[in-house]
Amino acid sequence: MAVRRRVFITGVGVVCCLGDSLGALVDGLSQGGLAAGPVDPQFLDPHLAGRNTYPLDRPARLLTAAASLALADARIPAQRPGDRDIGLFVGTVFSTAHTIMRFDRQAATEGPALVSPQAFANTVINAPLGQAAIWHGLRGINRTFATGASSGLEAIACAGEVILSGRADCILAGGVEEVSDVSMRAFAASGLLSPSGRHRPYEPASDGMTLSEGAALLVLEEAGAAARRGATVLAEFLGCGRAFDVSQRTDERRSVRSVVHAFRGALGAANLGPGRVDAIFSAANGIPRLDRHEALALSAVFESEPEPPAICAVKGQIGEALGAGGSIQCAALIGSLRRGCVPTPLVVCATPTGVVAVRPQDAPVRAGEPRIGLISSLSFDGHSSALALASSSVSDSLDAT
Amino acid sequence: MQPTVVVTGIGLVTSLGQEIGPFWDRLLRGESGISNVDSFDTSRFAVHLGGEVKAFRPASGTGRCDPAAVGRASRFALSAAAAALRDGGINVDKELGDNWGVCVGTTSGEPQEIEQAVDRQLAGDGDGSWSEFLERYPCHTIASNVAVEFGVGGDVSVIPAACAAGNYAITHAVEALRAARAEYVLAGGADSFSRITYSGFARLGAIARDCCSPFDLNRQGMIPAEGAAILLLERSDTARSRGARVYAEVAGCGLSCDAHHMTGGHPEGAGAVRAMELALADAGIDRRDISYISAHGTGTRSNDLVEALAVKRVFTQAPPPISSIKSMLGHAMGAASAIEAAVCALAVRNDQVPPTVNFRIPDPDCALDCVPNFPRSMSVHVAMNNAYAFGGTNSSVLFRKWKG
Fold this sequence. Notes:
By secondary structure, chain A is α/β, with parallel strands linked by helices.
């Protein structure tokens, strides 16, 4: 019987409101500050220096910068023709909607003869991927994913599955999202944004979420390929699960069931019992209904465990970056596994009345270094995804289980 | 050995009709779905032709998803999915369940929602409809709407891969079926006619004034179009056990990226060559066994040139017949390669291939057998579906005759 292929994560690139490195992300989360919002130019521009950025709109710049950081972190040199093919999988919700709207407004007001061909190239939804692939010479398998707010996690999950299947050896995978007037107006009108700006994951009194932006890409690499080039292993991709709630979050029972299905799918694909999970970097973003569904699912899957996993709701600090959100959660988990601690852990549990409570961080959570973690993403439409990662220090011992 | 994936249902929305039989007959007769654009005013353009779906009659579904509450691409996808399920003999009275997936490719998602938002802004009617915009615009809603309509609880995704998106979605579905992450997937593509797309291609000088004539010496360009195609894909063992009629096997898929130019192909067709070779390797098929190629064949000078070059690099001995149905339908963007996938499945099943119409003078730089103007009855053992796209995106998917 063929030996099961394994997938290692050998590099991470992240550009978000907390900074442009794993260290800055984990430090920022640990310090507990609120930073949701746009990415500061100081975290973006240096990673694009020395090249012509004119053809790239903001989503393309965010993604290209994250790819620069990820490739550098993995010590993969600039690609030349004839090098092995590196793939690129990217999740997004709005992608270049801001560019598209500006293009159409110009065509409508000034006439179609005066629009910019360059702007037109950026009106396809996969434009950020195309621009980043050109910039970095990424000629392998590629795919843009649109599964709502789970897009970025779905891109990483699928990249891991494609490498496991043997169709690729190395894929950069993650998500990108810009905050633009399009996404701001759309979400503001929907009533999902927190009027107070105090988005509080899992708190029933929270009044909504805060939009954020950024990009994160992981370098996923087949274990043998990583070993041959002497790559440093940051974590191992173990597996993922996904489900769709056809009630689109209107029926709590069905919504919770689909989130449970995603969590159990990830555990099953990773061949892990729930007791092995040390930390969960969850999707909660301060929208009470969705947070409650996820909390109920967490309780259903993990409540019988003697030591519950620590829950880390990073969107409480960095906001909801939509298509980039799941990939930034992945980066935060990998940073935490590397550092050996979980920033601002919570414990989520269901009370006998069915109400979900959150205990602050002085409540008991699993002691010791986190070794195995889950990341979850929920879309407002009904997508649920969960993905399991192991720290590099334990991935070898998993073979024996 | 990995499971075999087969096509057991086809649903179409095209400018040449929605029913498989009449659509196929019209393609073989070389009829045109091209007409003057109705959906917006083209008086400021130098070109006026499009492949709009002017007599759209939605196939009936379950009514769980309100077609009035979704965008045009979603309405196309819902109709094509309903037709594919009916064609595949699937009862949709009950929800399909967790072992089903939906994967839809698209170029622009729901661009008409952006256009309407711009029109509202220009009319000074600014903020009223943004909540509706959130529910209708983001492209992932196309697959979500299909999932809601038919009760699909598994992998539900949209793959925006511009004009190769249909092939991309089919590839994603094949991967899911081979890995047993799903038992059935509705996979294809959908795009609506868009003044954004039309403005952009017109600005590039890429739209034909008179007709689309791929591989012809005097070809003028492409003609934007719209539509959808959804294939019902499943593993051959489930198809066999439920006694399903099989159109063809999806034998292999290859994807690559040029990483060269956003709107133009690689000058030597490097990525296109890699996609074809990857698909052949994935299927374990020798290139000499390819009977027919459904070309990307947009009819622009640059696409046809690079595509012909790439095909001749892969098929050095004798390239198989290669035709472009875009000469009849126009270029339905993200739906195009899904419609062409359906055509490949039908070609393999029927042993007939549709022509490239409007062909008069061969372009010596594209010298290929493009099945000029008349259909051909021939044995089609394996059909290769090629599609290329903005972003340097390349795809090839192989459809093999199913012998049960």
